[in-house]
Amino acid sequence: MTHTCAELFQGMECTIIGNGDEEVTGLSFRSDAVEPGDMFFCIVGNVVDGHSFAQDAIDRGATSLVVQRKVYLADATDVAEVVVADSRKAMAHAAVSFYDHPSADFSLVGITGTNGKTTTTYLVEHIASVAGNRCGVIGTVGNKIAGRMEHSEHTTPESPDLQKLFARMRDAGCTVVAMEVSSHALDLQRTWGTDFAVTAFTNLTQDHLDYHHTFDDYFEAKALLFSRAYPARRVINIDSSWGRELLRRATEAGDEVITTGFASMAQIHPVDIAYEATRTRVTLEVRGAKVDVVYPLVGRFNVENVMTAFGCALALGIPTDVIVDALATMPAVPGRLEQVDAGVDAPVTVYVDYAHTPDALTKAIASIQELSGGRTIVVFGCGGNRDAGKRPIMGAAALAADFAVVTSDNPRHEDPQAIIDDIVAGMDADGAFIVEPDRRAAIAAAIAEARPGDAILLAGKGHEDYQLVGDAVLDFDDRKVAAEELVRAFGETETN
């Protein structure tokens, strides 16, 4: 697959210095990954300026550069330079062209919001599959192409990786793709030039303020997915003021909108809800009609996710009866209120959830309390080198449980005890909690604390099977460790 410099930037304002007919055989934004014939994008980051690596890229075989300013290099007279105003947007534009605009060949559902993105994408994928579509998923847990799971580095990949992934999904015959769209990705132009059939908003709560700095900036990053840059049918949860503001803007723009929420004004809202240990029964009002839905997911927050997915499916043209039938067979989502099965007759129940924001933790605890007749015990921490402002808020939120164990999550390059101290600063000194920095020991302590009938929530890591400590990536899966500790506490695994 080759294109010329001029072809890749057709329709974009730029200045090409040198040979615009230079063939480009690949795209790269890391100089150490450059292959001969690649176009190298000099990305200006918060810490590193890619212009500093232009010579290295040329030395490795790059035949063209995309720059925001002219660079002066030795022995590079045959290297074409494309001068642009924004190298990130230019990279996204070029990637779309390089892979022949793949998102135009299927129905792409983009889901943004602080919480619920992963579950909602999995719900959309399942509903669309039952409706007869070949599907793809892009998100936090991984990427899935026609049922085949792959590891992912980012919730939303960088634009060349994203468009390459879209091309693979197109070539695999996917007709519907459900994608988590992060605020970082929108702000950094990773999705620029992508065609969406549907865009959906779940909620907005505190997270990533180390990057966005203010809630308003965080919201405006999310709101980009509902701007004129991304025309689509909209599905918006209007339970919050943020959602209602998005609705106002979408209505003003003349967009087709399906609203969801617990409020009766939403086009999709619950009339009656019955929470059970392994499933939920909901009567939804869907555009004025009553619809009975039963699905094997638990918790109030999953009602929100189901409503958003229902709206997305309707926006895709999937009939209501097909949606209802699909929801009844929805498989579990990895690390989302996932019950641990240790193979022993344990008198306590352990759930694992990705809840890593104050709102998500609050909702997860409330969901466990609705399911359990006993006490609720939560084990949680906060990630290092991430929004420190939410740590004391997480601590306060955890006190909604009957007992809490504060521990390490992914400390990265921060001192685990310093992170814990930040968390504990938000907790009442008389609150029912202990501190145990070692996460395995913390899980064991929670199991030891539990009484028959109690439920334990392991929050923060969900599907992750690792722990990041300094530069080390350690093997650690909450589900696996909890199962081992349940066996240790209550007996050996049963065998036939």
Automatic annotation (TrEMBL):
<dbReference type="GO" id="GO:0008765">
    <property type="term" value="F:UDP-N-acetylmuramoylalanyl-D-glutamate-2,6-diaminopimelate ligase activity"/>
</dbReference>
<feature type="domain" description="Mur ligase C-terminal">
    <location>
        <begin position="335"/>
        <end position="462"/>
    </location>
</feature>
<feature type="binding site">
    <location>
        <begin position="409"/>
        <end position="412"/>
    </location>
    <ligand>
        <name>meso-2,6-diaminopimelate</name>
    </ligand>
</feature>
<dbReference type="GO" id="GO:0000287">
    <property type="term" value="F:magnesium ion binding"/>
</dbReference>
<dbReference type="Pfam" id="PF01225">
    <property type="entry name" value="Mur_ligase"/>
</dbReference>
<dbReference type="InterPro" id="IPR035911">
    <property type="entry name" value="MurE/MurF_N"/>
</dbReference>
<keyword id="KW-0067">ATP-binding</keyword>
<dbReference type="Pfam" id="PF08245">
    <property type="entry name" value="Mur_ligase_M"/>
</dbReference>
<feature type="binding site">
    <location>
        <position position="182"/>
    </location>
    <ligand>
        <name>UDP-N-acetyl-alpha-D-muramoyl-L-alanyl-D-glutamate</name>
    </ligand>
</feature>
<keyword id="KW-0963">Cytoplasm</keyword>
<dbReference type="GO" id="GO:0008360">
    <property type="term" value="P:regulation of cell shape"/>
</dbReference>
<comment type="function">
    <text>Catalyzes the addition of meso-diaminopimelic acid to the nucleotide precursor UDP-N-acetylmuramoyl-L-alanyl-D-glutamate (UMAG) in the biosynthesis of bacterial cell-wall peptidoglycan.</text>
</comment>
<dbReference type="InterPro" id="IPR004101">
    <property type="entry name" value="Mur_ligase_C"/>
</dbReference>
<dbReference type="InterPro" id="IPR000713">
    <property type="entry name" value="Mur_ligase_N"/>
</dbReference>
<feature type="binding site">
    <location>
        <position position="386"/>
    </location>
    <ligand>
        <name>meso-2,6-diaminopimelate</name>
    </ligand>
</feature>
<comment type="similarity">
    <text>Belongs to the MurCDEF family. MurE subfamily.</text>
</comment>
<dbReference type="GO" id="GO:0009252">
    <property type="term" value="P:peptidoglycan biosynthetic process"/>
</dbReference>
<keyword id="KW-0133">Cell shape</keyword>
<dbReference type="GO" id="GO:0005524">
    <property type="term" value="F:ATP binding"/>
</dbReference>
<feature type="binding site">
    <location>
        <position position="31"/>
    </location>
    <ligand>
        <name>UDP-N-acetyl-alpha-D-muramoyl-L-alanyl-D-glutamate</name>
    </ligand>
</feature>
<keyword id="KW-0547">Nucleotide-binding</keyword>
<protein>
    <recommendedName>
        <fullName>UDP-N-acetylmuramoyl-L-alanyl-D-glutamate--2,6-diaminopimelate ligase</fullName>
        <ecNumber>6.3.2.13</ecNumber>
    </recommendedName>
</protein>
<keyword id="KW-0460">Magnesium</keyword>
<keyword id="KW-0132">Cell division</keyword>
<keyword id="KW-0573">Peptidoglycan synthesis</keyword>
<feature type="binding site">
    <location>
        <position position="464"/>
    </location>
    <ligand>
        <name>meso-2,6-diaminopimelate</name>
    </ligand>
</feature>
<dbReference type="GO" id="GO:0051301">
    <property type="term" value="P:cell division"/>
</dbReference>
<dbReference type="InterPro" id="IPR013221">
    <property type="entry name" value="Mur_ligase_cen"/>
</dbReference>
<keyword id="KW-0436">Ligase</keyword>
<dbReference type="GO" id="GO:0071555">
    <property type="term" value="P:cell wall organization"/>
</dbReference>
<feature type="binding site">
    <location>
        <position position="190"/>
    </location>
    <ligand>
        <name>UDP-N-acetyl-alpha-D-muramoyl-L-alanyl-D-glutamate</name>
    </ligand>
</feature>
<keyword id="KW-0131">Cell cycle</keyword>
<feature type="domain" description="Mur ligase central">
    <location>
        <begin position="111"/>
        <end position="313"/>
    </location>
</feature>
<feature type="binding site">
    <location>
        <position position="460"/>
    </location>
    <ligand>
        <name>meso-2,6-diaminopimelate</name>
    </ligand>
</feature>
<feature type="domain" description="Mur ligase N-terminal catalytic">
    <location>
        <begin position="23"/>
        <end position="98"/>
    </location>
</feature>
<dbReference type="InterPro" id="IPR036565">
    <property type="entry name" value="Mur-like_cat_sf"/>
</dbReference>
<dbReference type="GO" id="GO:0005737">
    <property type="term" value="C:cytoplasm"/>
</dbReference>
<comment type="pathway">
    <text>Cell wall biogenesis; peptidoglycan biosynthesis.</text>
</comment>
<feature type="short sequence motif" description="Meso-diaminopimelate recognition motif">
    <location>
        <begin position="409"/>
        <end position="412"/>
    </location>
</feature>
<dbReference type="InterPro" id="IPR005761">
    <property type="entry name" value="UDP-N-AcMur-Glu-dNH2Pim_ligase"/>
</dbReference>
<feature type="binding site">
    <location>
        <begin position="155"/>
        <end position="156"/>
    </location>
    <ligand>
        <name>UDP-N-acetyl-alpha-D-muramoyl-L-alanyl-D-glutamate</name>
    </ligand>
</feature>
<keyword id="KW-0961">Cell wall biogenesis/degradation</keyword>
